[in-house]
Structure formats: C-alpha cells, structure tokens
Specification:
CATH architecture of the largest domain: 3-Layer(aba) Sandwich
CATH superfamily of the largest domain: Periplasmic binding protein-like II
Oligomer: single chain
Order of helices and strands: EHEHHEHEEEEHHEHEHEEHHEHH
CATH class of the largest domain: Alpha Beta
Helix content: 25-40%
Structural class: alpha/beta
Number of domains: 2
Number of strands: 12
Radius of gyration: 19 Å
C-alpha cells in the first residue's frame, strides 16, 4: 500500500458508520481520503456518482446494498478485483466476477417498544406485520432506495410478485406509518407512537446503545430467515488513484477495518472470522439467514421500480392493481 497520495470514495452508507473507518485508514496510511456521502447529496447521489465515474474521477464506491453496485456493473463502471481478505465472504454476498464484494452485513430486523409490548406479544415473522393484532400499529421506511429497497426486492424474489405486492399494499392501507428512513421508524417505536418497526440492525443497535425502550427480533427464525443486505465495495473503472484505491478496498476486508465497524455505536457484522466484537453484536453464523440471490434481487428491483418508487410516496395512489 502506498504511504502517500489520495483516494476518492463515494459513500452510500451513513457518515456515522463510514467516517470513523475512513479517518482511521487516513491516519494509519497517510493516504488522504476524499469522501462524498449520500446523506449530503441526497437524491442526486447516484447521478453524480455515475457522472464522475464516467469521467474517471472516482476510485471506490462503498454501497449499503448490492443494488447500486449492480447498477454500476450494468453501466460497465465496475472493475473485477478480489483482495486477499475477501476470501471468507460467502457467495451470497459477492458478485460472481468479483465486481463487487460484501465486507459487512446489516440484517433487517423487527424492533418493538418494550414498554408497550411483552416479548411474547411481539411479531416474529415478516408476514405477521399485516395480521392482527399488529397490523396498522407499526412503522416502516419507504422502499425506493437503500437497504429497505433491497429488503423489498428480496421479498419479491422469495415470495413472488403477487404475494409481495399484496404484503406492501396491505401495509400501505392498514394504517402502518410509512416514513422516510430507518431512523424515523426507530424514533416512532422508541417514543411509543408505533408498537413495532422494520429497520436495519445498525439502527436498532444504536437505539439499544442509547438506552431507548426497544427490543430486537430477527424475523422468520423458523421460516425463510432474515434478509441480510451486505455493505459492498466496488473498484471503479478508470480510478485516478488505483494503488490507493486498492489499499482502501483491502482495508475494508482487513481485521482492523472489521473491528472498527463492530465497535461503532451503530455496528455492522463482519464476514471475517475470529475478529473480536462487542457482546451486543451477533455473529452472522448464529442467525437463520434468507437465501437471496443478489442478482435476482437487483432484477426484481429494476422490474418493480415503479411500484417501489411510488409506494409510500406523498400523494401516492391507492394500492396498485395486480399486473
């Protein structure tokens, strides 16, 4: 790894997650990191990323799910690269040609307000969320982008289009609160305005670390298993700083990088074995994980784009007719 120079990375993950790791990498290597975050650019992020990648201005992409990574692959902007540290990553969490590879997991979980529900009263399966007594008493994020979109696309692949649409149409019509993101759903559950929420484990761990009255359930333990979006790395074609980019890419799969992600107050689960972690971060091997082909999920995401984008949007129409 070079001991100097710079690297340009576009980051879909939250700054609270990526920032500490990128700063530590910069401090330890002497490589200056220029990071552009989705939370700063908002809806313009994907467009600006692609435009700058086409111009050869971007080295690396840190994605929250394979969806944006597959978009870059489809645009021929991703370069195959497999760092040695990525060898333990299961096939489910990487591109077959190594044009993107997952380095950490962020399972989708059900959280519930522990002052309003006893453990035996909480929903334990995804399908429970549209059944009595839980229907209409929860909060979920919109499914147009990010991990929530990957979760929705995964359900389309696992359940089929008709059942998935029926589920989301029921959520939209039964009084479930539809909010902008996981953080908003978490706040509603924590305040007791919603009994349950469907969010990422990182946000749920944040809530527990801040002593909010929230308990965490990994859904569908006795069935299909939890949907687990991987956070992914992509080396961009025409990267202006290839040696530094490969250095940062490798750092994401190094024990030090994995340790930092697990120590975060909004922690992620590493794919690497034998990396020390706090007690509040589960091991992926202890979970029942849904078998989701990321390429099929991306195809569903593209094929159902109009439905996913309009679902929960302000002024959106009533539940959609079946195709």
């Amino acid at each position: 790894m070079p001991g100097q120079g710079s690297v340009v990375v576009y980051v879909e993950a939250a700054k609270r997650t990526a920032g500490p790791l990128l700063k530590t990498f910069q401090d330890q290597t002497g490589i200056s990191v220029s990071a552009t975050y989705r939370e700063i650019l908002g809806e313009r992020f994907a467009t600006v990323l692609r435009e700058d990648a086409v111009k050869g201005k971007v080295d690396l992409f840190w994605g929250e799910t394979p969806l944006s990574a597959c978009d870059l692959v489809d645009a021929d902007l991703a370069v195959p690269f497999r760092t040695a540290g990525a060898r333990p990553v299961p096939e489910q969490y990487r591109d077959r040609q190594y044009r993107w590879i997952g380095f950490a997991a962020n399972p989708r979980v059900i959280v519930y307000n522990s002052t309003r529900l006893k453990p035996a009263e909480a929903p334990t399966a995804t399908a429970d969320l549209v059944r009595a007594p839980w229907a209409g008493h929860g909060a979920v994020p919109r499914i147009s982008t990010g991990p929530a979109a990957f979760h929705a696309a995964a359900l389309f692949t696992l359940w089929g289009s008709e059942r998935a649409r029926s589920f989301f149409d029921a959520l939209r019509s039964d009084g479930t609160r539809i909010v902008d993101d996981d953080g908003a759903a978490r706040r509603l559950v924590s305040s007791g305005e919603a009994l349950w929420g469907l969010i990422g484990l990182d946000e749920a761990i944040c809530a527990k670390r801040e002593a909010e009255p929230i308990n965490i359930l990994f859904p569908d333990r006795m069935g299909q298993g939890a949907v687990v979006p991987p956070q992914v790395a992509v080396l961009l074609r025409g990267a202006p700083h290839p040696a530094q980019a490969k250095g940062l890419y490798g750092y994401l799969f190094a024990s030090e990088g994995a340790w930092l992600l697990a120590q975060n107050d909004c922690a992620l689960i590493t794919f690497l074995p034998d990396v020390p972690k706090p007690d509040w971060v589960p091991a992926l091997g202890a979970l029942n994980v849904a078998r989701v082909d990321p390429l099929e999920a991306w195809k569903a995401y593209r094929g159902e784009a109009a439905f996913l984008d309009s679902w929960g949007a302000t002024g959106a129409a009533a539940p959609s007719p079946r195709p």
